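Board notes (copied after class):
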Amino acid sequence: MIKNSTLAYEDEFLCERAFHVKDTAGRLRPVTECPVRTEFQRDRDRIIHCKSFRRLMHKMQVFLAPEGDHYRTRLTHTLEVAQIARTIARALHLNEDLTEAAALGHDLGHTPFGHSGERALDYLLPEGFRHNEQSLRVVDYLENEGEGLNLTFEVRDAILCHTGDEPASTLEGRIIKVADRIAYINHDIDDAARAGILNISDIPKEISELLGNTHGQRITSLVSATIQNGIDNDIGLLEPYGDAMNKLRDFMFERVYRNQTAKSEDGKVVNMITFLYEHFSAHPDSIPKEYMKYAERDGISVITADFIAGMTDRYALGCFNELFVPKVWQYK
């Protein structure tokens, strides 16, 4: 059977520190065993088929409502992270299925309008808002009509720890943080160049000479440096490549992420999210019933954030227009 061959492959080819699916700590709720897929493969499939994953295609990555078909969305970002993470896991003889599932699920809780939406909710909620924690909340509670996806502990842990100071409990989970950074820095360079915000030649020479001058060269350099670093200490980049990536990230914050042209509409996003949050907090009966399942336990502020965080960019705009923009009156 395919499943048995996968288990045999893990026993024979994975390295000593790799996580084997047979050792999983299991799920929040027990399930009937699948005769074909391992538990991590099932997690991957549950994520790919869920509504939150599909909605990522209509959530911006960096540029607000960009004109053009080739700018990244949160979905294409996720796919690029998964590709980079799988490559690293395969080369290091770690568990590729665990890595892939975590990569595909890491941004399920991201807000509409990227980090601008996240900052707005973080300011509005008394307990704050972080998209990695929301991603875990999506897979544990909100998906599947309020039943959650019931993923394995290791995938849930990797989703939660893909950002922040707490490392994932598995090496596979720690790959996601590195792959996420490699992906977004490089595809944001590509999108910023397409938007005319920077020229590739603007990248400091010391970085380009080490990492390369093209999108593919930079990713290959950083992925190779991660593989060459190995797993003796932790997942990371061999120096001087790690330092170069940090400098490239600083350059992107200076030239793109805080760019006044690219971010000129961010204040409007914050205002819009604030209006929506205040409205739905005051009118929880307008929130879909699948979100209200946990209202008594978690409170209306959290449920309101759940609803807004799950919106796509265009759905949030539609809600705002419906609620706050006057309609043209026509005599009939």
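Comment from the instructor: The mean pLDDT is 93. The two ends are 68 Å apart (CA to CA).
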